Amino acid sequence: MKRLVVALGGHALIRPGERGTIDQQFAHMREAVAPAARLIRRGYQVVFTHGNGPIVGTLLLQTEAAPERAAPMPLYVCDAESQGEIGLLIQQTLENEIGPDLPIAAVVTQVLVDPADPAFSKPTKPVGPFYAEEEARALAADRGWTIREDAGRGWRRAVPSPRPLRIVEEEVIRRMVEAGIAVIAAGGGGIPVIRSETGLLRGVDAVIDKDLTAALLGRAVGASALLIGTTVEQVCTEYGKPNEVPIGAMTVKRARSYLEAGEFAPGSMGPKIEAAIAFLESGGRMVVITTPDKIEAGLEGKAGTRIVG
Fold it and tell me: What pLDDT digit, counting tens, does each position of 285-301 carry?
């Protein structure tokens, strides 16, 4: 059986202008999961992972809304909560698409990071709600946050985004996959944790890039292909410019040359290309980057961008 990792972008769950109700999220999840369900019916074994962008921000907003009545939770706990919520959305949607005979399980997943990662001294990842500058600076002084202006839309908390080193539950996930279970794991890049000198795990407030963790997940389960769902149908050079050029296929060598030339933005397509390179160099055979509705066609070379070794 061919084994695939499908990485769904979290921002697909809440569209611009939406309130983000659970009914809206389920509707969008059905659109995202349907192509993967078709692949399962065709005999592929699919392991799911996902982003958590807007969901974890909403959870932070909720936990900070009434701190005098309920104790605010740290970011890494919100990461775990978002894994549970989105895991439920995928789990229920997939069973409704496939039927009750397919065993499905969502795994709350921790990912080890290096406490000496330079990202911890330079928080760059914006999370949570937008604030006016005065309020943001007051919160930063009160809670020790780093804040930054985000694309002219307001001020937000910025947190570290360290590189993932290892999935703590990878052996559990591997056994479940080998037993034929459709697993949902490492959502939002995983819950970032460090291990103390005595071997104890401790959560840290950070956000790991979900595509980099998806590459680790693919390697851990022995997937032959990694399918990355995003907001654009194809990877492009000169993205957003009049001379934008879509890429139908490229090799690892070509992908790396584009990356080194600065063609792919660090907070956008860059991590996806990095993840593709890492996955292919660790034994994977193919990466497809496209919109979630096109992943089936992308696997057949009829849509998206295919990257091979």
Answer: 999 999 999 999 999 99
Cβ proximity of 135 and 108 under 8 Å: no
What pLDDT is attached to residue 11? 67
Interatomic CA distance for residues 109 and 173, integer angstroms: 9
Residue that is written with structure tokens 């697909």 in the block: 12
Check if the beta carbon of residue 264 is closer than 8 Å to that of residue 278.
Answer: no
Mean pLDDT value across residues 252-280: 92
b/e map of 178-207 (b: 16 or more CB within 10 Å)?
Answer: eeebbbbbbbbbbbbbbeeeeeeeebbbbb
Say how far apart CA 171 and CA 40 lie, in whole Å. 23
Distances (CA, A) of 114 to 51, 133, 288: 21, 32, 29
Q: Domains (ranges, CATH) in the chain? A: 1-114+165-223 (3.40.1160.10), 123-159 (no CATH), 227-309 (no CATH)
Mean pLDDT of the chain: 92
For residue 276, count CB atoms less than 10 angstroms from its CB and return exposed for 0-12, middle for 13-18, buried for 19 or more: buried
What is the Cα–Cα distance from 207 to 102, expressed in whole angstroms? Answer: 31
Per-residue pLDDT tens over the stretch 156-207? 888 999 999 999 999 999 999 999 999 999 999 999 999 999 999 999 999 9
Residues in contact with 227: Cβ distance below 8 Å, sequence separation at least 6, in sequence order: 4, 5, 6, 7, 287, 288, 290, 295, 298, 299
Give the residue ranges of DSSP H helices in the chain.
Answer: 22-41, 53-65, 75-98, 133-143, 170-178, 210-221, 252-260, 270-281, 295-299
Residues 6+ apart with CB under 8 A from 249: 301, 305, 306, 307, 308
- 197, amino acid identity: E
What digits encode the pLDDT tens for the residues 235-259? 999 988 899 999 999 999 999 999 9
| pTM, to two decimals | 0.91
Task: Report the SS3 class of residue 162.
Answer: coil
